[in-house]
Amino acid sequence: MKFSAHIYIAAALVASASPAALAQNNTPFTVAENGQGFYSLSDAVEAIGANRGTIVIAPGAYGDCAVQTEGQITYRAAVPGQAILDGGICEGKAALVLRGQSALVDGIIFQNQRVPDGNGAGIRLERGNLTITNALFRNSEQGLLTADDASGSIVIDRSTFQRLGRCDRGLSCAHSIYIGDYGSLSVTNSRFEKGNGGHYVKSRAPRITVTNSSFDDTQGRSTNYMIDLPAGASGVISGNVFVQGQNKENWSAFVTVAAEGKKQSSAGLNIHSNSASLAKGVERNTWFVADWSGDKMRIANNSLGRGLTRYEQR
Predict the structure, then answer these.
(1) Which residues are CB-contacts of 60 (< 8 A; sequence separation ≥ 6)?
(2) CA proximity to 166, closest of 135, 121, 204
(3) 8 Å CB contact between 89 and 115
(4) What digits encode the pLDDT tens for the residues 35-72?
(5) What does the DSSP assignment read for the chain?
(6) pLDDT the model gives residue 172
(7) How far apart, in Å, are the Cα atoms of 26 and each of 30, 38, 80, 84?
(8) Angle at the Cα of 180 from the Cα atoms of 203 and 51, rounded to 5 degrees
(9) β-bridge partners, 313
């Protein structure tokens, strides 16, 4: 299966660093607004405090982590794909623990985040709005994990989620991204691949958009659904490419709606113009959409490969 050329792979980006990205005294973390440099990401976050600011991260791999409790902060790689937060964990949760007013993450690689409870994440979002663009999450237990914030929104664009998730050790599964009771989730122009367990996208948000993205499960291990909306959701799933691999813990559906109970309406959920297939050599019968909600949805104009049935109400 060939994926569309628009799919973004963060590590392949090359760009020129701006003068603001060059930290004072070779410090790796620079507050762009005043040029002040820091050796610690946490110190840079603290310097911005309740204000609005941008932290530019110089090329390199850093075991740093930070907790944002206030303000509006942009975390930006000086050179996209060359600033790596590698293995650092704050509060036993993630490289970035976010509960300020808002955050924007641009061009950063998150990798090797693991913790004893099995939920080590690149980003743990606990409150506020979040935008992620041009980022790569890999080789961790979760890419993005959130708490609940019904007033908050999450936007993910041109980002890659690779070798994430797990279902082992008798612990609850982790997923490539797991969104709690947030206001809305939008995923566009992004790639999910090589999952290590759990779902690729699990979201309890009542409104969801997943468009022009790819879900390549051909090298997945013990994975589950491509998109799981366990409480139901309205919105749009369109223009995506889905390929289900052989090594599945649960291969019974690609997209599921209200599998854990109907908490919110899925009426009008529009699943259209997607391509879904089984990987070469995989022989099974499965469903593109499995629905427990009973709400009236639109499932139309999807290209389904052999062995796939359009819809099953359960």
Answers:
(1) 28, 82, 83, 84
(2) 121
(3) yes
(4) 999 999 999 999 999 999 999 999 999 999 999 999 99
(5) -PPPTT---GGG---PPPGGGS-GGG-SEEETTTTEEES-HHHHHHHHTTSEEEEEE-SEEE---EEE-SSEEEEEESSTT-EEEES--BTTTEEEEE-SSEEEEESEEEE----TTS--EEEEE-SSEEEEES-EEESSSEEEEE--EEEEEEEEES-EEES--B--TTSPPB-SEEE-SEEEEEEES-EEES--SB-SEEE--SEEEEES-EEE-TT-SSB--SEEETT--EEEEES-EEEE-S-BS--SEEEEESTT---S--TT-EEES-EEEEPTT----EEEEEESS----EEES-EE-TTEEEEEE-
(6) 85
(7) 10, 9, 18, 16
(8) 120
(9) 291
**Which residue's structure tokens are 């701006």?**
18
Type of residue at 23: A
Alpha carbon 30 to its chain's center: 26
**Phi/psi-derived region of residue 49, left when phi > 0, alpha when psi is between -120 and 50, beta in every other case:** left
The pLDDT tens digits for 288-301 are: 999 999 999 999 99
Residue 311 has pLDDT above 60, yes or no: yes
With 0.70 as the threshold, say if the pTM is over it: yes
